[in-house]
């Protein structure tokens, strides 16, 4: 039972354009969402997060949008740069748990072409 | 900076061997996690621990056990390694009640 799904295994965009990575979830108890970025041979690094009380959070070139009614979130990268080429994972948690447990999606490989 | 250190970057083991993967964090985090990452499957939680000597099963605990004798150290044990345990293993830690997890660089384990 995949509670967090990233249906696009890969995405290719041109440098300078917008990258949009999507994530869907099924559990209505999820109230905190995160995006991680992973380069080959490195561990994932935290990128940006959003609480369910918000519908948008912005940090520099990265913006996360949350649509609770559709159980959908997306990560926008504008403008995309070649250094953004990596695997991106979305993750979700139910805040009632104090163990900090996260449920991860399958990941989307982003390639930004120069 | 938070630092999560995994003892080995690459390991090659034989089927049936007992394998220990070690993880140490330096930020006094309460929570520690072990994941495996496989292509197309994302990060799947094997075990986690929210306190010393406490452990809980994740989504795929079969064939694995864990040990947390000290707050900073969380060990993953493969009692009898099998070829289907060939994978990238990632350790993470976080403060209690907070959700941002910090990851180590990973251990790529090959079981032959």
Textual characterization of the structure:
- The complex is a heterodimer of chains A (114) and B (112).
- By secondary structure, chain A is an all-beta fold.
- Chain A has strands at 4-5, 10-14, 19-25, 32-38, 45-51, 56-59, 62-67, 72-77, 86-93, 103-104, 108-113.
- In chain A, strand 6 and strand 7 form a beta hairpin.
- In chain B, strands 2, 4, 5, 6, 9, 10 and 11 form a 7-stranded mixed sheet that branches. In chain B, strands 1-3-8-7 form a 4-stranded antiparallel sheet, with no helix packed on it.
- Chain B is built from no helices and 11 strands.
- By secondary structure, chain B is mainly β.
- Classes of the chains: A mainly beta (114), B mainly beta (112).
- At the A-B interface, strand 4, strand 5, strand 9 and strand 10 of A face strand 4, strand 5, strand 9 and strand 10 of B.
Task: Present the secondary structure layout.
The complex is a heterodimer of chains A (114) and B (112).
Chain A: E1 4-5, E2 10-14, E3 19-25, E4 32-38, E5 45-51, E6 56-59, E7 62-67, E8 72-77, E9 86-93, E10 103-104, E11 108-113
Parallel strand pairs in A: 2-11
Antiparallel strand pairs in A: 1-3, 3-8, 4-5, 4-9, 6-7, 7-8, 9-10, 9-11
Chain B: E1 4-6, E2 10-13, E3 19-25, E4 31-38, E5 42-49, E6 56-57, E7 64-70, E8 73-78, E9 87-94, E10 102-103, E11 107-111
Parallel strand pairs in B: 2-11
Antiparallel strand pairs in B: 1-3, 3-8, 4-5, 4-9, 5-6, 7-8, 9-10, 9-11
